User: Fold these one by one.
Assistant:
Number 1:
Amino acid sequence: MITTDIDSAANALRANQLVAIPTETVYGLAGNAFSDAAVRQIFLLKKRPAYNPLIVHIKSTDDLSLVAQHIPDMAYQLAARFWPGPLTLILEKKPHISDLITAGKKTVAVRIPRHPLTLDLLHRLDFPLAAPSANPFGSISPTSAHHVAAYFKDNLEVILDGGNCEQGVESTIIGFENNQVVLYRHGAVATDEIAAIAGPLKVHTSDNMAPVSPGMLSRHYSPQTTTVLTDDIGNCVKDFYGKKIGVLVFSQTLTDEKIAHQEVLSAGGQLAEAARNLYASLHRLDRLQLDVIVAERLPEVSLGLTINDRLERAAKQ
Ligand code: TXA
Ligand code: MG
C-alpha cells in the first residue's frame, strides 16, 4: 500500500515488518535495526549478498552512541555540518550491533536522513532503522514511491510516500582509516564540500574482489537494457544505427531522427538537477524495450563525479 500515514509505517515496523521509507537521496527498504529477523528479511527481499552491509538510520546525533563507539572528532564535525543529510559515516560499531547489519565487519554505517516524514517516523520509534536502497540488488535505485511499488508491491504492506527524492542519488560514504578521511562512495554531498572541512580525501571507491562497500562493485545501479557511456555522444549514437536507441544527455538534446527516445537530465546544465533526475530517467528508458541506452558523460566536477560513477557502473557488462 502506498500511503502517507506515518502511524501505519510505525506500527508495521514495530511488528517487525519491512517498510519502504522516503529519504532525500533514494527510497530505503527499512526494518528495525535491533531485530535480526527484520534485518534478515531485508537481505532476503533485496536478494542482497550477506557480504554487503546496511546503513543504520538514526534520528539525532545523540543516538550515535546507540550504534557506534570511539567516534573520531572529525566524524562529529562532519555530522554537525551535513546531518540530517546525505552523508554516511563508517564508524567502529558498538558490540551489540548485529553482524548481519555490518556483514561481520567491526564498523557500522550511520546517517540521519533529511526527509520530514522519515524523521517524524524515526522520532516515533524507539529503535533505529536499517535500510538499504529499496531496489533488488544491483538494479536502479528508486526515487519515487511508484518506483518502489514496481519492484516490491507484492511484498510490502507499507510504502511511505514522500514524493520524489530531492537529491536523487545515494549518500556519500566516508570512513576513517589511520587518521585519514576516506571516500568509499561518491554521493549526494560533493567531495569538495567534505574536503573543505576534512582536508584532502583518500579515494577508495572501487574494489571488486573484497568490496569494503559494495556500491563499489563495478556493475551496480544497472538498467536491464545494455547501456553505453561515452564522451562523444553524437558519434557514439551512429554506432547503433539500425537498433532501437535511447539516449541520456546532460543538457543538450541531439537532433538525430534515428533516436527512439531522449532523456535530458537538466536543460539548464545544473548538476544538482541532473542528479535528481538521473534514476527516474534511467527507469523510464529501461521500460521502453530499447536495444541500447547511450549515455553522455557529465563534467567531471562536483556532483558530475557522482553521476558519472553511477553511469559507469550502469554501463559495466
Ligand atoms: O542514500 C543512501 O545511502 C540510501 C538511503 C536509503 O539511505 N541507502 C543506500 O543503501 O544507498 P545501500 O545499502 O544501497 O548502500 C549502502 C552502502 C553499500 O555500498 C554498503 O556496502 C556500504 O553502504 N556500507 C554499509 N556498511 C558499511 C561498512 N561498515 N563499511 C563500508 N561500507 C559500508
Ligand atoms: Mg543500493
Number 2:
Amino acid sequence: MLILGIETSCDETAAAVVRDGRQLLAGVVVSQVDAHREYGGVVPELASRKHIEAISVVIDQALNRAGIAPTDLEGIGVTRGPGLIGSLLVGIGAAKGMALALGLPICGVNHLHGHLFSVFLERSDIEYPFVGLVVSGGHTNLYVVRGPMEIDLIGKTRDDAAGEAFDKVAKLLGLGYPGGAAIEEHASGADAGGLKFPRALINDEDPAFSFSGLKTAVLRHVEERLGVSARGDIPGSFHSVVNAQTRAAFEPEIRRIARAFQDAVTDVLAVKGVRAARKFGCRQIVVTGGVAANRALRERITQEASGAGVEAAFPSFDLCTDNAAMIAARAETLLAQDCVDGLDFDAKSR
Ligand code: KG4
Ligand code: ZN
C-alpha cells in the first residue's frame, strides 16, 4: 500500500510517503525549534499557527519528492495523539480533507506506536515479541510488542520523561533549548571525576522510571558547587545559573555534570530496558524517540544487551526524532487490519 503519513503532534510539521510500511519514498520534516527557542520550550499556540503555515507545503513536498500524484495514494495515516491538541488538529484536519477529496481510507495513529514501528523502515529482521523503549521529550515508555495489534505498555515514568530531564538540566546549565544534544556534546569526552547522581528505581523489578529526583540532585550539586541559587520565584521552578559571562569559568564543571547526569540516565534506561527484554523472553530491544539519538545511550544499551544475549536495535537519527515516516509505517499495519477511522474521529491529546 502507498501511504501518506502526517505528523503534527508537537513542534515538527512532517509528511512522508511510505510503500508497504517498509520503504520510505520521501519524508519531509519542518522543525519549529527556532521559533520556540527564545521561550525555552514549546509554546502551544505558536506551534499550532506554525503547523497551519507549513502543512500544505510539507505534504506537497513529500508527494513531489516521492514522484507521485495524490491520486496514487492508497491510504492516509495521521497522528491522533498524544500531543498538543491544537497541533494535532491541524494535521488531522489536513488528513481528513485529503481523505475526503481523494476517497481514501484514513486512520488515526498513536504517536508512540509510530515511534516503535519506525524500526521496520530500516530493518527486516525484527521479530515479535520485542521490547520497545520510547524515550522522548514527553514520554519514557517501555512496551512489549507481541504483534502489530498487541502492544502492551509495561512501564513508564512516574514523573519527568528522560528527554524532559535532559532539557531541564540543559536549561539549568545554560546550554539552551532543546538541551539533549547540547548535554551529549558537553558530556562527550568528559570525565565525571567521581561525581555520581542517583539512579532511581534501577534495582526495582517494577519496570517504571523516575527522573525528577535526578534533576533535583543535579540542581543541588550545581547550587553547592557553583555557589549560586537556581531557584525561581515560583515554587519548584529554577533558572539558568550560567550566562555568557560566567560560562568560561564554569565550563569544566558543566562538562563533568553533563557527563555524570548522562551516565545516570543511560544506566537506568539500559538496565531496566534489558531486564524487561529478559523477563518477557524477548530477543530484541528496539530503542527510539528523540533521546535515542544520544550516542552514549546507544552504546550503553548495546553493551548491556549483549551481556544478556539480547540484540539492541536503533532507528537512524532522523527516524528517532519526530517524523511522519513512522506514522505511515504504523498506519500500514492498521489499515491492513481494516482499522479504518470515520471522518469524525477526534484528536486524543493524552
Ligand atoms: O521524540 P522527540 O523528537 O519529540 C517528542 O516526541 O518529545 O524527542 C525530543 C527530545 C527532547 O527532549 C530532546 O532534548 C531529546 O529528545 N534529544 C536528546 C538528544 N537529541 C534529542 N536527548 C539526549 N541526547 C540527544 N542527542
Ligand atoms: Zn515523539
